[in-house]
Amino acid sequence: MKSSSPDISDSDSNARDWLSLIRAPGLGPATLKPFFDSSSSISELLSQLRQSSDTRVKKALDGIDEAQIESDENWLNSSENQLIHYFSPQYPAFLRELPDAPIALFARGDTELLGFPQLAIVGSRSATQGGLVNAGAFAEFLAKNGIVITSGLAKGIDAAAHKGALAANGGTIAIMGTGLDRIYPAEHKELAHQIADNGLILTEYPPGTGPHPGNFPRRNRLIAGLSLGTLVVEAAVKSGSLITARLASEMGRDVFAIPGSIHNPMARGCHALIRQGAKLVETAEDIVEELLPKLSTSEKPADASEALEVSAQIDADHAAILDAMGFDPVTTDQIVENSPFNAAEVSSILLLLELQGHVLSESGGRFIRLR
Predict the structure, then answer these.
(1) Which residues of 267-291 are buried (b: 16+ CB within 10 A; e: fewer)?
(2) Domains, the chain, ranges and CATH?
């Protein structure tokens, strides 16, 4: 499903003009939005800017670094790198609605995914093992149902969501807060390559842009803006994921949250969202049902029992251990107290349950039951 690079041969798609506009110091998306709305081509846009009485605009146009533009052009000349400008038919309509719509998007991968329905999955960088499993399972199920999974390539929930979509051979888009040549975090270089080969990596930042703190809240508005809804898997009360959820809500998009244990600090952000009106979801099917009226895909949702099938039948002893665990993290001693088994038997059964995917071991010798 790889698409060809946007046509940059005609006057409306002159790459050098767009790169100059992007590199003009002090000319940000919010400043340029009124000019975009009153223009239909890059030549008309530049003409309006040059005729502007705003001295800041003139100063910005005069301050363009031509050597930098040449470097950007060389980067763009690589067959795998693409520029999707504001007037391009590939530019997502959802993003044009933003008051600070990006001037252009730098892309690597399958740009056709921008035309598919997307769901943002975000959450804590310090997620629990249960949160990571949930993010991956939800993403895999939704990707199998034709929904593109959009996230931010960050540690924790973001990475798990991308991996879940890739496991389903589905679509996933990574929105970056850096240039495409500066993968952040560095340990996700291999994941970024996998997404570029099988999905899409995208940014509004030109080549060479590093991981500046202010870039990531701005990145979050694109994650929310591209998607029909945002799912928060785990988040602390003060979390960048809640910024994404707030932006999605302000844009009139659905916000979903997975509830968690009252003892899990990473669940408190989700609980706060639910109190504020986010839709509580327990299964990926809950999200499909909510989004179904908005989906343009004709694919019929798969049966959850097929998408998330249990790896093995649970015998009576294993079921007793699961019942003794409940759904909060517990130690082996607590399970022994609540079950008819001794410590050795509990440890043996827990090992089998973990291998079968019914239980996760966490730090501190605790175990948590999965649905």
Answers:
(1) bbbbbbbbeeebeebebbbbbbeeb
(2) 11-79 (no CATH), 112-303 (3.40.50.450), 316-369 (1.10.10.10)
Strands of 200-203's sheet, edge to edge?
82-85, 104-109, 200-203, 172-175, 148-151, 118-122, 229-232, 254-257, 279-280
> Which pLDDT score is estimated for 297?
40
Q: What is the pTM of this model?
A: 0.79
Local confidence band at 231 (pLDDT 50, 70, 90 cut-offs):
very high
Task: Identify the sign of the CA torsion 199, 371, 244, 288.
Answer: positive
Q: What is the largest CA-CA distance in the chain?
A: 83
Helices (H) and strands (E) in the chain, counts: 17, 12
User: Of all residues in the chain, what percent carry a pLDDT higher than 90?
Assistant: 59
> Omega of the bond prior to 301 within 30 degrees of 0, cis?
no
Nearest to 267 by CA among 288, 242, 284, 230: 242
Would you state the pLDDT for residue 371?
Answer: 62
Around Cβ 46, how many Cβ atoms within 10 Å? 18
pLDDT at residue 3, rounded to an integer: 39
Q: Which residue has the higher pLDDT, 11 or 86?
A: 86
Count the neighbouring beta carbons within 10 Å of the beta carbon of residue 18.
Answer: 26
Nearest CA to 244 among 147, 158, 142? 158
At residue 232, φ and ψ (nearest 5 deg) are -100, 120
The mean of the pLDDT values for the chain is 87
